[in-house]
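Review this fold:
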Amino acid sequence: MISQSSRREILRRISVYVGYEVREQDLSPETRRAVISLANALKHITFLTELQRSEKARIEGSLVLKAASRLAGRNDGNAALNQEISKLHSELEAKIVEVSQRILGEERKTPLAAGDASTGVDLVELKCPKCGAPVSLPSGRYLKCQYCGATLLLEEISSQISGAIRGI
């Protein structure tokens, strides 16, 4: 289930762009689905950001890990992942602007009937690029597929989130 805080944050950002408080129940079904999809993407991006921060703090807190990271040249990998996360944030913000413009362009707001909010919403399901099986969010820099045993990098997961944002 999409966290309510992610939905509230997306609605808050949209409200800033349109200049008034946007309430989800006042949106068209298509726009509501877009808000839910954006909230789902925000949840994934936030998770990747926190994971990256905790990895950096773990390495910085250990002299051995810091030295091993420098010897292995992982600083470049961290910079690349930081750039990828920044790119995801930019793509998400662009979609928020697009949805805000859609809201401003709607002539009439029609509230949905109770229960309609859950229909027709495509949530981002992360999949193993090797076998296509669903994977859960990683708990570290790497993720192992439970089905085929493939080791996935966070960069592979972030590209799926990026694709989902573009598809909104």
About this structure: The beta strands are 142-144, 151-153. Confidence is low (pLDDT under 50) at residues 107-121. Helices lie at 4-18, 29-60, 63-72, 74-105, 154-166.
